[in-house]
Amino acid sequence: MTVPDPTRDRPVFGIAVAAELAGTGPQNLRAYERAGLVRPARTEGGTRRYSQDDVDRLRRVSELMDAGLNLAGVAMVLDLQDQNRKLRGRLEQRRRDD
After folding, report:
1. Domains along the chain?
2. Is 37 within 8 Å of 74 (Cβ atoms)?
3. What sequence ranges are listed for the domain HTH merR-type (predicted)?
4. pLDDT at 6
């Protein structure tokens, strides 16, 4: 079992750094946000801040787009993957409780 890293969801990257880490441009990050594929945190002044988890998700979005999916297809795949991850976590918890 892997131990969760509590810093992975800490929003520390600005949009330019997050875009560079994800291998895409800031305009794509804005488009992905509009499509609901990523939800960066905001500072009090409204500046976007991305976490490592966000950057990983952005990389996955880019992979799926490169594979030929459109934004709607990417949203469906990510939603299914998120559901699958939650169900696996619940199953793992039940196995530990038994």
Report:
1. 15-97 (1.10.1660.10)
2. yes
3. 12-80
4. 65
Helix (H, G, I), strand (E, B) or coil at 91: helix
Q: Mean pLDDT by 10-residue block, N- to C-terminus, for the chain (98 residues)?
A: 70 96 95 95 95 96 96 96 95 91
3-state secondary structure 32-88: HHHCCCCCCEECCCCCEEECHHHHHHHHHHHHHHHCCCCHHHHHHHHHHHHHHHHHH
Lookup: tokens for 36: 């609901």
* 92 vs 50: CA distance, rounded Å: 29
pTM: 0.83
Phi, psi of 32 (to 5 degrees): -65, -35
Q: Find out whether 93 and 59 touch, Cβ atoms under 8 Å.
A: no
